[in-house]
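One thing: could you explain this record?
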Amino acid sequence: MLKKLKKNILGRWSLPALALMLVVLAVFYFTGRAEKMDPSLEVSRPTDNCTSILVGRLASVDGSTMTTHTCDCGLCDWTWRHVPAARHKPGETRKIYHISQFKTWPPTEGLKWDLVKKDFTGLEIPEVPYTYAYHHGMFGYMNEKQVAIGESTIGNVRKLDNPTPTPAFDITMLTIIAMERASTAREAIKIMGELAEKYGYGFHDNGEMLAVADPKEVWIFEIIPVGPLWTPQSGKPGAVWCAQRVPDDQVSVCPNESRIGEIDLNNPDYFMASPNVISCAVENGLYDPASGQPFNWKKAYSPINESATSSNGRYQRLWRFFDLVAPSLKLSPNTPNMDLPFSVKPDRKISLADVINMTRDRSYGTPFDPVKGIRGGPFKNPNYYRQTRTICDSRAEYTTVTQCRDWLPDPIGGIVWISFGSQDTACYMPFYAGVTELPHSFSIGDHWVFNRDSARWAFDYVDFHVQVIYSEAIKDVEQAILKYEKPVIDQIQEIDRKATELYKKNPKEAAKFLTGFCLNNAQNVVKAWWDLGDQLLVKYNHLYLYNVEKRTYQRRFPAYPDLWQKAVRAFDVLFESEEKK
């Protein structure tokens, strides 16, 4: 059979000739497609894997709203800090800085959040009397009023890009101002939208989506620049934006794709938008009112005409999410992503643990399984096969899961759960909205300098050792997660109760209690992950199995799977003649 296969593939063609032919065909095909498309109407497609999940309060097990953010980059800043609340005198101003999601500085030069102040835009806006305390990493994630945010880059048609420094706001700065000033999700959206309209949006960023939540509501907010010629003197809005509320009993997701379709601005309970939401599309040839078709936000500003199947798994996260939460809908992976629903009612209510598990999803058992056949190598490593983009992402700087709960005081009701690095090899740690500090180890470190004082490096240390022998080492990580993550999730209800009792007597004592709990837990987890990394190094050294307790080792363990060994032999036979040439 192998000889027949070899004959059919090679025939009278050598491998170099076949390769050249395929390259020529590919160039011809894609060149032909490009000629038919106005380059300015192409979508600047994100290369990141920032998945944001949204859960309405009536769709969750405990009544909390939830959002997530996989901060995917592979080279970005991963540090976190807590910003305390502050009171401001009349006449004070707030300086606005250009903040790139991707720019970092060597640790010897200082922390990113101090160095960004060197990139002052020249704009100062009136300060408000009181700014809320909040926690932030790459973006603002949770403030003391339980306003929560998750992010996902969505891109836009290229003609609307504005890479000039004229716009004062980028997405990071918008989220920080929202954290400082908003007491509800709606307020956050209006604050960000109005600032972007007045002072411009773009420079470092193009199309972006934010999952904006409070204890009552969850919204998808999408914002896009309006082109490189915009100036504040133009009299036109410096951004175009739209927001749609997720129904309380439903869930949604944004996997780097615009999610808002047809809009109804006569229904303000579910839709908000900038005044130029339709006129901007008309002016730029993105929508024709005379067509008789209703205006569709994503089709106008950020169309991605792919499905899970047509993209060979590159755009399968949207379908995969709905397949996980509502399998009864039997949505086909062949369905164009633009036609998939904005949100769905899940088959069963979603718990915090469910959401965390979804952030670790690798699409196993689907047509886009990254370890199917020999894709994952001998140890079924899902990070080898990069064609499929899964919700779990090995390049994640960190991942957040936010919870907002209306039956508790704000400092206790809000929680942001943080894990560093790849979700499958990390542990989620909770930080209440009312804590007054984050661990020092969260505020330091970068990709280029190994640092045992940095929390992130503990998780990368484990992840690095797991990659070598994934199918075996991931079992050790899963046991550590059961030991350090699940008990804390189970303990939260009791922590809530104790904190609430203290809060009724003295809010400061409640904050002290919560801060102590979160810092102590994070310290224990980070130490455990450093220890786990050491253990993995010893246990699987040389691809043997070392038993520390018995002081023995097995040279032939773990066995290489038969399928992988057969595939190696098959390819050896198939190409042996070419090697002889």
User: Anything to note?
Assistant: The first strand starts at residue 51 and ends at 55. Residues 43-407 form one domain. DSSP finds 15 helices and 20 strands in the chain. The CA atoms of residues 323 and 330 lie 7 Å apart.
